[in-house]
């Protein structure tokens, strides 16, 4: 199972936007130059973050993207699921009900125990990512980083 | 992120083999008929379980597959990773070190905090699946199921 390559992009872009001064934005071009990413594909991912309510987009010469709410209110899970969706990596196609060994319907009213365990694992994964916000991530970067990030990012054209 | 469709197959096949009497086996054809699965692709998955040391294969008219060790010593994680590998779904390509915002190498001696969190989530997923064995799964099926499974499976030709 693989998350899309853009998962790393959106996590880093969101973390970067979390370092901007309130009221300031960064454009797709600025973020693409900052991380050397392809503009059209990055634009699509940023739109997904806007659609998920994590970023706000504004137009005009000083327009661009900023966090739609406080960094402490945006979790890694929300960022990851904005681009990859919420579905479990395990797909139960109910093979217990097919073939010559098919179980009768009355034994399949409860979900398959294997599917239940796989769902529990997915929930454990989700809980871990839901427990970390962008604000938590910022506490793990060097104290001088945000000022440098702001300067580098907002001077890119 | 998606696990291969065969993940459900191998989980069910391993659970089914865990219900056989000691010393008995089931062939690829029997398992394929039991769940209505394509023989060649299922054969490939069963080989992966043998390679991972979870199943033993024997040849001859009564040959086939059986668990290579006790059901209490085979975890769901081992079965899943036998067909999908152990790597994390998140791929860190170190975009923090590329582009105009590239961090200097001295600030990248520690792993990226985002990659660390994504790895923690993967470990939480793995821990959940490592905590459940095939023997645990058997406790969740109807008490009459194993005898029926054995009868149905071993009479398939």
Brief account:
Two copies of one chain form a homodimer. Chain A is built from seven helices and two strands.
List the helices and strands and how they pair.
The structure is a homodimer of 157-residue chains.
Chain A: H1 6-17, H2 28-35, H3 39-51, E1 55-58, E2 64-67, H4 76-84, H5 113-130, H6 134-138, H7 145-154
Helix pairs in contact in A: 1-4, 2-3
Largest sheet descriptor of chain A: 2 strands, antiparallel
- What is the average of the pLDDT values of chain A? 94
Q: How many beta-strand elements of chain A?
A: 2
Give the uncertain stretches of chain A in residue-range form.
none
Strand content range of chain A? 5-15%
User: Please, what is the oligomeric state?
Assistant: homodimer
The helix/strand class of chain A is mainly alpha
Output the strand order for the largest sheet of chain A.
Answer: 1-2
Helix content of chain A: 40-55%
Number of DSSP helices of chain A? 7
CA-atom Rg of chain A in angstroms? 20 Å
- H/E element string of chain A? HHHEEHHHH
């Amino acid at each position: 199972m693989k998350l899309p390559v853009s998962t790393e992009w959106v996590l880093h872009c969101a973390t970067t936007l979390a370092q901007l001064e309130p009221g300031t934005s960064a454009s797709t071009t600025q973020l693409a130059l900052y991380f050397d990413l392809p503009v059209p594909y990055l634009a699509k991912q940023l739109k997904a973050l806007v659609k998920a309510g994590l970023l706000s987009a504004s137009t005009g010469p000083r327009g661009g993207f900023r966090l739609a709410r406080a960094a402490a209110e945006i979790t890694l899970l929300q960022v990851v699921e904005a681009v990859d969706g919420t579905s479990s990596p395990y797909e139960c196609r109910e093979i217990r009900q097919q073939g010559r060994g098919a179980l009768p319907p009355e034994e399949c009213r409860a979900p398959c125990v294997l599917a239940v365990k796989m769902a529990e694992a997915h929930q454990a994964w989700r809980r871990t990512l839901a427990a970390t916000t962008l604000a938590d991530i910022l506490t793990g970067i060097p104290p001088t980083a945000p000022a440098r990030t702001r300067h580098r990012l907002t001077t890119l054209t």
